[in-house]
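Researcher: For the annotation table, I need structure tokens for Biotin synthase. Please keep the output clean. Sequence:
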Amino acid sequence: MSAQANIQIRHDWTRAEVLALFQLPFADLMYQAQTVHRTCFDPNQVQVSTLCSIKTGACPEDCAYCPQSARYDTGLEREKLMKVEKVIEEAKAAKASGATRFCMGAAWRSPKGKDMPYVTEMVKGVKSLGLETCMTLGMLNEDQAKGLADAGLDYYNHNLDTSPEFYGDIITTRTYQDRLETLANVRKAGMKVCCGGIVGMGEEESDRAGLLIQLANMAEHPESVPVNMLVKVEGTPMANQADLDPFDFIRTIAVARIMMPKSHVRLSAGREDMNEQMQAMAFLAGANSIFYGEKLLTTPNPEASKDRQLFTRLGIHQESYEIHQDEKEQEAAVYQALEASHNDQFFYDAAK
Ligand code: SAM
Ligand code: DTB
Ligand code: SF4
């Protein structure tokens, strides 16, 4: 296969190819990921999103990693749906501290009919502040997805979490197929998709490959791909999970970058347990988005001032809302770079 074919926006990744990427020598994998990253993005620019838990705890689902499941005693206090005014206050504060996207999360299996008017008001209010909007509310049917899209919601986050094979070890109350259907409803309604997963849950490398294959072989790549490192929360079945080798985490970011060249890959949950060097390595591997602000949904995240310092030390600037590179321009740039390179040794050949 030619080098040119290897860097196309592909939707036909095979397991053998992806495993071969994971098994590359680290330096070769990083080089390949950086080559793709620099072709599609400014490598010194990172998008920042702030999370807000609009409805906390008492979730009926059994996701083994999650502090918000009602099935585990994690000491979390359940909270009712936040008032629209309070959400808008939080969004203003996020904007003032530099975020460009505001992600609202609810510990629901799926929103109920009575919730929809409130969440659509939240979307409208946050959007009117000049922020991009994202929500993660669990499963959506077609009508709910359309309602959110009509309210102006830009992104919907719904993660596949892991490979289809490992999924049943983590969640039993909703199926992989349920998740794929929600994602299809989100696309059909015309919203951008934010979809990724969690690593460090005791999965094998082949599961990390399996997750990325699911994402990259979608008819359209998710615009945003959060790669979460498990936050081990006392009381959940995953509390004592063994640490993931940090290089395996970085490899996952790098392979995601290669497989989904134009997507924003987000260095997501787990940064509290990463030192600055590891985070810098994630950016080198192609991560170009983070969650910004002291709290994720219910667990801590690095202080915003620390992130700002890290950005300054690394010469990273924040992506502004308007300056997403036009998609067509990006694709042209990918092909142009390939024409110029013609260097097969930059890219592995899975057939070898
Ligand atoms: N309830 C909705 C749902 O699950 O679709 C939305 C909120 S849920 C908390 C959003 C995502 O957060 C999950 O799909 C999972 O990927 C991530 N997440 C939750 N707990 C986590 C943890 N302890 N460590 C890392 N990621 C976590
Ligand atoms: C995503 O992939 N990660 C975020 C967001 N989407 C909603 C959530 C991380 C949650 C970590 C555990 C917590 O703070 O409750
Ligand atoms: Fe509920 Fe979402 Fe947590 Fe699963 S991940 S228990 S659905 S809040």
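Researcher: And a one-line annotation?
Model: Residues 47-320 form a domain with the TIM Barrel fold (CATH 3.20.20.70).
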